[in-house]
Amino acid sequence: MKSLPGMKKTKALFKQKPEDFLVEEILPFKLSGDGHHTYLFIEKTNISTFEAVDTVAEAAGCSPRDIGYAGLKDKNAVTRQYISIPCEPPALDHPQLRILSSTRHNTKLKKGKLYGNKFKIILRNVENPSNLREAFPILSKRGAPNYYGPQRFGALGKNHEIGKALLLSNYQQALAIFLLANGRQEAYARKLAERLKPRQVWKKLPRRLPQLFLNALQSHLFNAVLDRRIETFDKLLPGDLAMVGNRFTKVEKPEDFAGKPDFSPSGPLFGRKVPLAQGEPGRIENQVLANSALTLSDFAKSHLDGYRRPLRLQLINPSLKLENTTATLEFTLKKGGYATAILAQLIEETI
Fold first, then answer.
1. What pLDDT is stored for residue 350 in this prediction?
2. Tens digits of per-residue pLDDT, 173-196?
3. 42 and 75, same structural domain?
4. In the annotation, is 54 catalytic?
5. CA dihedral in degrees (106, 110, 114, 119; nearest 10)?
6. If you compute the radius of gyration of the chain from its CA atoms, what whole number of angstroms results?
7. Is 5 within a domain?
8. What whole-number distance in Å separates Cα of residue 224 and Cα of residue 337?
């Protein structure tokens, strides 16, 4: 992630305790209280969403595929999110996972069906509180570059490399990179690889994994576009596809958007149907694709439709409290926004 020019940062300690990073999911609709699905509001600590889903599925006696969730939450944090199950709430006895509430609803929770997330972040041993006091209001007003956070790319930071190999049907290379890590799915894949060809191994693994890696590739390319737009992430250029509210509009004259505070330039999550910008923004997008040795025709053969994402991330209801060298930041981000994108503009490095 590139830093905004002129932004004053500070050193600080981050995530010293799980509760230093609290995330709470916000649904875009009200639960009906009636229906065939049960929405569980769960709290997990230092486990992934996948682990939480598998644990609930086992306790409820159903398949993980029957469980719905809107998005993946940080592993190394305290996170609260909704999951839906097609049965009654299970009895759950787990030291890192608990059910806070349960409500009936008539439909399964689908991926992406999310308004946003509320964050509460504690920074400790803040070296320069005055820098933080000056920088945070700037981000609150201007917004921040809408980077995908490092968690998108896995513990080894190679999820996008696996995604690229899968996109190009290089299943052997994708498997070799995947097996560099040591998790439960990797152990299962190693056993499969003893008797199956790489392509067959990928077919046996949960369908969510290849999708996760392909999405990481899209995110990596988006971040590369944003790197090239760091000085204009909040400024429209001729040829941009501007996001105003939830709609995209072609920009011919940037001055036509004056007085619209919710606008943002957008960047591509490359896919077979995504439109590209024109002019200088379009040149940047095509150059990023070329630099990655990929073409739009590579995506045309995939199931990835693609879409466009705002370059600018707006903070909703931001607040900052400073007590000596401890800072508490609170804000809400719409779905797809990463708190790490905010922190990257505030923290120089951890100490």
1. 53
2. 999 999 999 888 999 999 999 999
3. yes
4. no
5. 110
6. 21
7. no
8. 16
